[in-house]
Amino acid sequence: MGNVLLIGKPNSGKSLLFNRLTGLQQKVANFPGVTVEIKSGSFDNIGIIDFPGIYSLNPLTKDEDIALQKFQEAVEQNNVSGIICTLDATRLERSLIIALQTLNYVKENKIPIIFALNMMDEIYANKTSIDVSSLSRDLGVVVIPISAKKKHGLDILKDEIKNMLKVPGNYLPEKTWEDEKIVIKSRGLNQTYGPKTDVILKKQNFLDKIFLNNFLGGIMFALIMIFLFQAIFTWASPLMDMVESTLAWMGQVTSSYLPDGVLKDFINEAIFGGVGSFLVFVPQIFILTFIIGILEDSGYMARASIICHKPLSLFGLSGRSFIPYLTAHACAIPAIFAARTIESPKKRLITILTIPLMACSARLPVYTLLIAVLIPDKTFFGGVFGLQGLAFFLLYFFGLAMALIVSGLLSRTTLKDESDSPYIIELPPYRLPTFVPLFRKSLSAAWAFFSKAGPIIFVVTLVVWVLGYFPNGSGNLENSWLSHIGQFLEPIFKPLGLDWKYGVAILASFLAREVFVGTLGTFFGIEGADENISGLAESIQNSGLLAASGFALLVFYAIALQCVSTLAILKRESGNKLFPIWIFVGYTVLAYLLALLTYNLVSWFS
Amino acid sequence: MKRSDILWELKEKSHAIIEGLGEKIPKDFQLRLGELGLLKSGSITCLKKTPFNGPTLYQVGDSVISLAQEVAENIYISRKTNG
Ligand SMILES: Nc1nc2c(ncn2[C@@H]2O[C@H](COP(=O)(O)OP(=O)(O)OP(=O)(O)O)[C@@H](O)[C@H]2O)c(=O)[nH]1
Ligand SMILES: [Mg+2]
Asked: What CATH superfamily classification does A3-195 receive?
């Protein structure tokens, strides 16, 4: 038996409905173009497939293109037993365009179809209504009113789906519409049966006057961004301290039960010193995801994209690049996928190539550690603003500035884009975020961060520990195997004022950036075996790292592309085998040169 | 009916009737604009201009879309009197 496909206008709630039906956790957010890849699941042995939203069967963007190709493939291979077309009841006219086009298509291919009229809760909340039965009669299709959010009508929908698979004949569309008339027909249907548009758009239009106000709009945008990045630092600190002290306590308890020897050293130095120092950063990922999640649910992302359109165009990008860029602060990979919604191929490519410069969460541990080492922990205004938080913000800004410079250069030096389509975006309504799913989403992001980088960090730490511990054991790092190997690296890192230990940590972090922290943690664990486990930042401070070298490290990590998965995705999404190589080499060289410059500038000033 | 009016010059809170799309707009994009509600002889309202000639918000049919200057400059309208 084939699958049931979920098709419909962007932002009409397909993915939320998919999650409700299948129990899976597909990403849901309040702007058009969230889903960019198809995803399958099932309920009661019925396969369900969530598609990227499409405005029409005439594709314009890459995500629509992919959706349509997959859709047609599935139909041609007889893999489709039915279709659920979601309609956004608050945007009935827009939803009906793709819905009527789909009706024509499925009638030709004899596929049964159901319309799921979603967001009915908002229709009721606005005290307006839709004449569902007349709409259904006029269209010649089964229309089920539902609310995926409030879980209304889902049982009825499930029954209808089962019925559709049993007696497909009852669900074949009765009518077709001339392609040229679909747009006008949709408007007519909405005017005859639909809700009162003015009532529905009232709140949205009112809020847009504030959030897009000439003066206030810009200020609020800046405040929201500053708040976002400041919060990752300030709000996460107490949680991070908690994790750190719990780990320290656990380390003390375990070592008091273990006999002296290699095992005890290993547990203390590699597990608690190395892997543990990375665990401390998990709360930051949680908070980052949580705040970005609030923005995504609220509908603000589309407004921010509008505000950024003009400034971004100066650098050859468009407002569409905003969402991928912001997403990239969590992780470059979903951000590169999100760039599929950019309609101009050239702008999309430039966005993809510069996404790795955004301060992704793998850089967080490195930044946080080095900031704790370099910047004094001073706060102002009763702790609202801190020097460290400010430094953190500047690092984010540095990443963005580098990305814009590179974008500007790329867009000016490469060929003109023939198929450059102009900027256009449909504005979603403002909605209050739903906190429980958001909380769950943030937890699973923190878990993913841990479980993805964790194994790599464990293995690298293990190798580094073995090479750094033997042959002489704890406290003898300078005569270990690793130190002999590390000496070869000294010439590269000496100009930055860094010794072989940092050289090894940097090299190892080409596997994953977070490894830097774990590796240093292990080194200081081996070196200071007799001391109590103190914070890693403190150990680095005591080791006498030069400020100039510290800043050079920050600059290096801000630019270098140390992420194998990003390179793999870049290759796939750019459709060019050479891009990842160029960009890897380019960013590494740039990172080194700018780090060198930073080292010399800071040394000269101090 | 005068064809000289362009959408980009429509003031905030005023209404107009769409007369047509200019040739400078690519074909596939013209199609999309129609599907997004920009219908010939349909009405359009300018909701909000943004600073520095940023994308402007328009209401067409039951939705609000924002159009960049390059697009709105190439859309012809006729004004409604006292709209
Ligand atoms: N009020 C209300 N909101 C809903 C309902 N269903 C979905 N939403 C919200 O609508 C927004 C879009 O939901 P998604 O499931 O991401 O929409 P989608 O159709 O998958 O969007 P794309 O993947 O971009 O095509 C989210 O903010 C949801 O929380 C509903 O029944 N009522
Ligand atoms: Mg979706």
From this structure: P-loop containing nucleotide triphosphate hydrolases (3.40.50.300)
